[in-house]
Write a structure and sequence with these properties.
about 70 residues, mainly alpha, elongated
Length: about 70
């Protein structure tokens, strides 16, 4: 698996069309690991920061209603 991860580019990725950041690199890593059969992605998250913020707001809202 390590040899798979070291192949992930640290330059402008063509898949996500974003400057390389730790988040973009992580998405590249997850897609590569999925493609190589090391993991199985069941949900594609295009914007992890937005996804985390949305889930946090939903949890806070659910707690305030309980």
């Amino acid at each position: 698996m390590l040899d798979c991860v070291v192949r992930i580019p640290i330059v402008y990725p063509t898949r996500f069309h974003q400057n390389i950041t730790c988040r973009v690199w992580l998405k590249e890593a997850l897609f590569l690991l999925h493609g190589e059969g090391f993991i199985k992605l069941t949900l594609i998250v295009k914007d992890p920061k937005l996804e985390a913020s949305t889930l946090t707001m939903q949890k806070k809202s659910a707690r305030s209603l309980a």
